[in-house]
TrEMBL record:
Higher taxonomy: Bacteria, Pseudomonadati, Pseudomonadota, Gammaproteobacteria, Oceanospirillales
SUPFAM superfamilies: Nucleotide cyclase
Region (Disordered): 360-388
Protein name as annotated: diguanylate cyclase
Compositional bias of kind Basic and acidic residues: 360-371
Catalyses which reaction(s): 2 GTP = 3',3'-c-di-GMP + 2 diphosphate
E.C. numbers: 2.7.7.65
Gene3D superfamilies reported for this sequence: 3.30.70.270
Molecular functions (GO terms): diguanylate cyclase activity
Keywords: Membrane, Transmembrane, Transmembrane helix
Annotated organism of origin: Modicisalibacter xianhensis
CDD domains the UniProt entry points to: GGDEF
Length: 388
C-alpha cells in the first residue's frame, strides 16, 4: 500500500534516520534506540576520549580510540541495513577493548572500570537474545574483574602530588554519568514516540489516515449513549473496482486517499470519518437531524464530484459516491442504525449511483455521466490533489 499522508524527507536524511529495509514492529524500538546510541558514541569518541588521550600523550590509546570511532561508524551502517546484532556486537567489542587497554595503561582507580556499566547498559537495550545478553555480560565482567585484580590501583605510578589521576577520575565519572543520562533519556523518548505511534495505528487506517472500522464504531457507540440525535452516513465510491482494474491498485490506493481528503474538507471538527472497509466509508455526525445530514451528504458528494483525482502521470480520474443516510431516531439501537444506513446505501447503488438515499426514495439524483466509462480516455489534469 502507498502511505499517502507521509511527510517528504530528504533522501540523505532519510537514509540516516530510517532502516534500509522494512523492520517488524517489535524491532523498531531497538532500531531507533540504538540509532541514537551510535550518535552518542560518535560524539563521545570525538569530543571526549580523543582529547583525553591526546592530552595524556598516550599514542597507543589514541590509536585505539580512532579504531573505536571507525567501528561505531561501521556498526551504524550495519545497523541501518538491518544487521542490528552484528552492529551492536562490533561496538561492544570496541568499547571492551578500549576499556581493558585503558585499565592496562592506568590501572584501576581513575575511572576507566566505570565504562563496564555503560557496556552493560548497551547489552541490555540491544536486540540480542536473553541468553546472549547474559553470556556476553558475564564474559566482559570476568575480563574486567581479572584486569582490575591483577593491576590494582596504580595511581602511585603518577608523579608524586600530581593532580592528573584525580582529573582523569573526575572526567570519567562525569562522562559516564552523562552517557547514562543521555542514553536513558533517549530510550524514554523513543519508547514514548513508539507508544504514540502504536496507539495511532490501533485507531487509524494505515492507507488513508482516517479512523479505522473499530475506532469509528467506538465513536458511534459513544454518541449512541448520549441523549442527542446523531446521523450516520454510509459512503461508497462508484465503480471503484474499474479504477483498480484499469489503472492498477497503486492508483486505486491514491484515489482512496484523495477521496478521504475530500470528505475531511466537508466535515466539522466534531464529526467522525472512518474507513468502514474497502472503498466504503462511515461518517458519524453528532447533533444532526435528517435534513441537516442530507445537506452534509450533498456537500460531500459535490466535493468528490467537483475535485477529480489528478494522477501522477497527468491523467485525471473523475469520481462520484453513493450515500446512505440515517439518524439515530429511526432505529432502536446502533446495529439497527448501521443496517438502515447500509440498506439505503445499497438502494442508492441499485438506483443509478451518484446519489443520496435518506428515505424510501432517492432525494438526490443528479444528471451526471458515468464517472468512469467502459473505455475511459485519458484527460489532461484539471484539478490539484495533495496526492498527485
Amino acid at each position: 500500500m502507498v502511505a499517502c499522508n507521509s511527510r517528504k524527507i530528504p533522501d540523505k536524511w532519510r537514509s540516516f534516520m530510517f532502516p534500509a529495509c522494512p523492520l517488524p514492529p517489535e524491532q523498531q524500538r531497538y532500531f531507533h534506540t540504538l540509532s541514537r546510541l551510535y550518535v552518542i558514541a560518535t560524539v563521545t569518541y570525538v569530543l571526549a576520549l580523543l582529547p583525553m588521550f591526546w592530552l595524556l600523550g598516550n599514542v597507543h590509546l589514541l590509536a585505539i580510540t580512532l579504531i573505536g570511532l571507525g567501528s561505531v561508524l561501521m556498526a551504524r551502517e550495519l545497523h541501518r541495513r538491518g544487521y542490528m546484532t552484528a552492529g551492536v556486537s562490533l561496538v561492544l567489542a570496541g568499547m571492551t577493548w578500549h576499556m581493558l587497554e585503558s585499565l592496562d595503561a592506568y590501572g584501576a582507580g581513575v575511572g576507566f572500570e566505570l565504562y563496564f556499566s555503560v557496556i552493560l547498559l548497551i547489552i541490555y537495550i540491544s536486540a540480542m537474545s536473553p541468553v546472549a545478553k547474559l553470556g556476553i555480560s558475564l564474559s566482559i565482567l570476568t575480563l574486567t574483574a581479572l584486569q582490575v585484580i591483577e593491576l590494582g590501583d596504580r595511581t602511585n605510578d603518577w608523579h608524586h602530588g600530581s593532580l592528573v589521576p584525580d582529573l582523569v577520575l573526575m572526567a570519567n565519572l562525569l562522562l559516564v554519568s552523562v552517557l547514562f543520562a543521555v542514553i536513558l533519556t533517549g530510550l524514554e523518548g523513543v519508547t514514548e514516540r513508539l507508544e504514540r505511534s502504536y496507539r495511532r495505528e490501533a485507531t487509524h487506517d494505515a492507507l488513508t489516515g482516517v479512523y479505522n472500522r473499530r475506532a469509528v464504531l467506538k465513536a458511534a457507540e459513544q454518541m449512541a449513549q448520549g441523549d442527542r440525535t446523531f446521523a450516520m452516513l454510509m459512503i461508497d465510491i462508484d465503480y471503484f473496482k474499474r479504477i483498480n482494474d484499469e489503472y492498477g491498485h497503486d492508483v486505486g490506493d491514491r484515489a482512496l486517499c484523495h477521496l478521504s481528503e475530500c470528505l475531511r474538507l466537508g466535515l466539522r471538527e466534531e464529526d467522525v470519518l472512518g474507513r468502514y472497509g474497502g472503498e466504503e466509508f462511515m461518517v458519524v455526525l453528532n447533533s444532526m437531524t435528517l435534513n441537516d445530514a442530507v445537506g452534509v451528504a450533498e456537500r460531500l458528494a459535490a466535493l468528490v464530484r467537483e475535485n477529480p483525482y489528478a494522477a501522477a502521470n497527468g491523467l485525471t480520474l473523475s469520481m462520484s459516491v453513493s450515500v446512505g443516510v440515517a439518524v439515530s431516531s429511526q432505529a432502536e439501537d446502533l446495529n439497527g442504525l448501521i443496517v438502515l444506513a447500509d440498506q439505503r446505501l445499497y438502494r442508492a447503488k441499485r438506483t443509478g449511483r451518484d446519489r443520496i438515499v435518506a428515505k424510501d426514495r432517492p432525494v438526490v439524483s443528479p444528471n451526471k455521466e458515468d464517472p468512469l466509462p467502459e473505455n475511459p480516455l485519458p484527460v489532461r489534469m484539471q484539478g490539484v490533489s495533495r496526492f498527485g
